[in-house]
Amino acid sequence: MSNISTIALSGMNAAARRLDVSASNVANAGTTGALPVDGTVPPGAPQAYVPLQVVQTESATGGTQTSVTSVTPSTVATSDPSAPLANQDGLVAAPNVDLGQEMVSQLVAKYSYAANARVVAADDRMTKTLIDTIA
Length: 135
What we know:
The protein is of the alpha+beta class. It has one domain (about 5-135). The chain is built from two helices and four strands. The protein has helices at about 5-25, 100-135; strands spanning about 50-60, 65-70, 75-80, 90-95. The strands form two sheets. The chain has a two-stranded antiparallel ribbon with strand order 1-2. A two-stranded antiparallel sheet has the order 3-4. A hairpin with a 5-residue loop joins strand 1 (about 50-60) and strand 2 (about 65-70). Helix 1 (about 5-25) packs antiparallel against helix 2 (about 100-135). The longest helix has about 35 residues, at about 100-135. It starts with a helix and ends with a helix.
């Protein structure tokens, strides 16, 4: 595999990871929990989903690498007085997930994956042409 394909493959892996993290955030956007008191959730109380984000950095050898971190702040106070875990003000902790941003992240992942797949295909065609020319 050429260096070009290796770099493109790292981009495809980053796009797949971005899509996976975004899908998890969207699937768990409604998973609320008890509102933290003094920064901590009371013992035994359910916790809200902690959304994740992908941090993509340049690799020293070319290409890209990713790591996954928690979104900060991870929750926001939301009014849901009917929730059994709501505090005296009717608030619960909801994941800090922006569904619009998640849609953008999924589209970026889709187009990034497709573009890198085209690079791999182009590199394959160039290598085949080179081998055919030499042979």
